[in-house]
């Protein structure tokens, strides 16, 4: 791992739906945080981010979000990312109906 | 109410066609997000935490039953079957898909609604007293002036790229229900002899730098109002700061230049502008006044109301809490609470919107209002119809009798939806409403306002108890302010001390309320009155008596 780089996932909003998506180990994108590829190498993360930024017809605002390894895959390191991964707390909208939380 | 002209309809049609083409170009990749973002924001379309959000203007909070029904239909067809009414008399749809938004805008245009200038550094939706044209305490109906301001400011070429967003509120009553002192310009209708005019307040606002607005003129005659406001906007456009987003609001300009200097610059600009105004605005205002003429109030017995009031305690509780005095003694203003205990403040389902539309059509002269406190109002209801209305509201879960009580909380969407938020607001409001449900009548008049970030969309600075959600070292933390007031006696709340963790905020509010109940002279002394009499110390002592889990913020 790079000296100053903390494990992160690559995330963005889908252009069409607006919802949160994550870059996966297969090079595809998933709606589910646990499917995300946990980058531990800064160079690989930067390259994936640049690739996402080069696809403005699919994604909006890609960025690297801190995460850590969990039992079922990467887990968000900050509560904001946890809410993005889960959906709002007042309705089972967003990710909840998809069984993603 | 105002009916859109052919010109208005053509304008919206053209504008929507332009946006449809812009969306297509974004989807095709012809526009980058950087190019598209300002275009979508000009049409009220944000990208929030989980989805797009479309913010629709409800000018001065007034709409008719057809418009409310259309909002319901839009929420079902293109969203998730509900809408969120905001503190600026807008409605927000939280889940539209990008490709659907042009169709949503076309549907809105069918009933004379739009999302123009609900975002961007321009004059935002002009807000007004939600009891306008109905209230017993009113000097004059402010809505014709609000509509004049809307027409003047919409697509005004000089004011599309102001230093920052610009908010105007207007009231026609000495009792300020429009929070005029917390707006960039606040207008209060006043009379001098036979002359109708306005007290003009500038430089109010909440957010990062909360400021109570200052009176720049205690009387601007009605015929001078629009050129005078244009002079203020023009001065702000010229001298407002653009180097720092956080110092770009007019309140900072007023603070840095001083009110006297701002007044002098506005007066100079006004002297030039006044001569350029031909009087067309006066003619338009005369026509607008006809559009807003009071409905034909009917004369009929009110015994039905009196009987229900005497014999039905549930109805009596509703009447005592949710009705306000109407200008006509046989009528009442009904506030429909969108704050059922445990519900999301400001949310209404499509079914609820349709019911409210039906009630407005059948009993309310086809008028509805949205309040900045995120409730819905039927402004003109004959008292004899109130028992029927109450029964209908009960059937739809809309009869909560809590207007002005502790569960009638303003709460911004917070981090459950908003990309800017630093903590959640909605679940805090839900838990407070549930926790105090049994005691709220005893607690009495109480304004709790919650914001999920420093931008203060939940007006926490002017809450009797304000709650500000922040991110402290990666966890949600809530600061409390005390003694705020958004009315004609406006005041900013003062920060009580260190913040509280999420699971400690309701117990902290409980200690505060218990202290108030112990300290008040009697049940007639409200929380804010007790706070003003006693000062903050006993309330701060109560908040921190346990040591709690207060942080070191």
From TrEMBL, chain A:
InterPro entries assigned: DUF2849
Source organism superkingdom: Bacteria
Name listed for the protein in its UniProt record: Uncharacterized protein DUF2849
TrEMBL record, chain B:
Record keywords: 4Fe-4S, Heme, Iron, Iron-sulfur, Metal-binding, Oxidoreductase
SUPFAM superfamilies in UniProt: Nitrite and sulphite reductase 4Fe-4S domain-like, Nitrite/Sulfite reductase N-terminal domain-like
Residue stretches making up the Nitrite/sulphite reductase 4Fe-4S domain: 119-270, 409-518
Domain Nitrite/Sulfite reductase ferredoxin-like, chain residue ranges per copy: 52-111, 342-395
GO MF term list: 4 iron, 4 sulfur cluster binding; heme binding; metal ion binding; oxidoreductase activity
Keyword Metal-binding in annotation: yes
Stated name of the protein: Sulfite reductase (NADPH) hemoprotein beta-component
InterPro entries associated with the record: NIR_SIR_4Fe-4S, NiRdtase/SiRdtase_haem-b_fer, Nit/Sulf_reduc_fer-like_dom_sf, NO2/SO3_Rdtase_4Fe4S_dom, NO2/SO3_Rdtase_4Fe4S_sf
């Amino acid at each position: 791992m790079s000296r100053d780089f903390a494990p992160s996932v690559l995330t963005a909003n889908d252009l069409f739906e607006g919802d949160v998506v994550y870059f996966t180990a297969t090079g595809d994108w998933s709606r589910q945080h646990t499917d995300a590829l946990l980058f531990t190498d800064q160079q690989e993360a930067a390259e994936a981010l640049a690739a996402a930024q080069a696809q403005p017809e699919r994604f909006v605002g890609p960025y690297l979000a801190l995460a850590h390894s969990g039992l079922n895959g990467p887990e968000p390191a900050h509560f904001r990312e946890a809410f993005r991964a889960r959906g709002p707390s007042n309705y089972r909208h967003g990710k909840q109906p998809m069984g993603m939380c | 109410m105002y009916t859109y002209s052919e010109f208005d309809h053509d304008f919206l049609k053209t504008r929507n066609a332009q946006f449809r083409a812009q969306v297509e170009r974004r989807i095709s990749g012809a526009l980058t997000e950087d190019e598209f973002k300002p275009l979508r924001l000009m049409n009220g379309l944000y990208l929030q935490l989980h989805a797009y959000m479309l913010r629709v203007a409800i000018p001065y909070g007034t709409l008719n039953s057809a418009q409310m029904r259309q909002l319901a239909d839009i929420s079902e067809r293109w969203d998730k079957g509900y809408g969120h009414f905001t503190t600026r008399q807008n409605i927000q749809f939280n889940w539209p898909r990008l490709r659907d938004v042009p169709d949503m805008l076309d549907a809105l245009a069918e009933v004379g609604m739009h999302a123009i200038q609900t975002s961007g550094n321009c004059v935002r939706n002009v807000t007004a007293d939600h009891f306008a044209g109905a209230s017993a305490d009113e000097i004059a109906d402010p809505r014709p002036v609000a509509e004049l301001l809307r027409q003047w400011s919409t697509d005004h070429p000089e004011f599309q790229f102001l230093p920052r967003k610009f908010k105007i509120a207007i009231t026609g009553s000495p009792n300020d229900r429009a929070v005029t002192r917390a707006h960039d310009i606040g207008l209060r209708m006043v009379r001098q002899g036979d002359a109708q005019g306005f007290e003009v307040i500038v430089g109010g606002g909440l957010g990062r730098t909360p400021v109570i607005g200052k009176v720049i003129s205690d009387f601007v005659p009605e015929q001078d109002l629009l050129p005078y406001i244009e002079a203020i906007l023009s001065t702000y456009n010229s001298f407002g700061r653009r180097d720092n987003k956080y110092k770009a609001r007019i309140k900072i300009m007023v603070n840095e230049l001083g009110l006297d200097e701002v007044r002098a610059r506005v007066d100079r600009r006004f002297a030039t502008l006044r001569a350029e105004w031909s009087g067309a605005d006066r003619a338009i205002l005369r026509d607008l006044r006809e559009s807003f003429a009071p409905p034909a109030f009917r004369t009929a017995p009110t015994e039905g109301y009196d009987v229900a009031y005497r014999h039905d305690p549930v109805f009596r509780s509703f009447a005592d809490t949710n009705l306000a005095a109407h200008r006509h003694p046989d009528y009442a203003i009904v506030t429909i609470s969108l704050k059922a205990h445990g519900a999301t403040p400001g949310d209404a389902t499509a079914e609820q919107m349709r019911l409210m539309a039906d009630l407005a059509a059948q009993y309310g002269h086809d008028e509805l209002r949205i309040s900045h406190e995120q409730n819905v109002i039927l402004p003109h209801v004959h008292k004899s119809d109130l028992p029927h209305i109450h029964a209908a509201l009960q059937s739809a879960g809309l009869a909560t009798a809590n207007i002005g009580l502790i569960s009638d909380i303003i709460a911004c969407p917070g981090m459950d939806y908003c990309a800017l938020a630093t903590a959640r607001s909605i679940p805090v409001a839900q838990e407070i409403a549930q926790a105090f449900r049994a005691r709220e009548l005893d607690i009495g008049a109480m304004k709790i306002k919650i914001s999920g970030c420093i931008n203060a969309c939940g007006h926490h600075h002017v809450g009797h108890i304000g709650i500000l959600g922040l991110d402290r070292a990666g966890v949600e933390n809530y600061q409390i302010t005390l003694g705020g007031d958004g009315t004609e006696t406006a005041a900013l709340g003062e920060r009580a001390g260190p913040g509280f963790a999420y699971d400690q905020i309701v117990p902290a509010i409980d200690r505060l309320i218990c202290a108030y109940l112990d300290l008040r002279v009697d049940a007639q002394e409200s929380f804010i009155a007790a706070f003003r009499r006693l000062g903050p110390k006993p309330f701060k002592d109560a908040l921190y008596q346990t040591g709690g889990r207060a942080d070191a913020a």
